[in-house]
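Thread: "does anyone have the structure for this chain?"

Original post by V.I.:
We have the sequence but no experimental structure in hand. Need at least a predicted one for the grant figures.
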Amino acid sequence: MKKIANVIISIVILLVLSSCATMKAVPKDRAIAKFIELYNSGDTVRMTEMTSIPMLIDGEIVARNTDADFFWNSLAKAGFTLDGSESFTVEPLGANSSLVFGDTMEVGTFFAKYVPETAVLVRVKGPVGDFILLLSGRKGPYPFIFGFTGPLL
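Reply from O.Q.:
Generated one for you, tokens below.
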């Protein structure tokens, strides 16, 4: 009886941990492509749900969901899209990855405190240059977004 109880407790713990949004994983190419499709769809509600708060936009830390929602809505209203889900490159984080967002103490602290080791930088073409998405983890078909910057010329 004790053995069965231990098995049930172990299964419950695994289920809770596997459904936890804070679990981080390296996003796969298909999940990244799905994220770009989500962004281009204009579904700002879902984009806000997939935003890790705090989030880094260029060199600024966004600490409220309402600010992230305003950001995504503003981009959608402006008609800003990213070029297709097939035209992106992915690179794992390196010692200088934070410099893409800025060479400031605030950016360095954000990377040290909030960005999981499993995060990747995704370079995707936009209408006026390349943009960088900082992605990690996954909820359903989409990775979470930890940062957005660009254009990089």
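V.I.: this helps a lot. Residues 20-149 form a domain with the Nuclear Transport Factor 2; Chain: A, fold (CATH 3.10.450).
O.Q.: and Confidence is low (pLDDT under 50) at residues 5-23.
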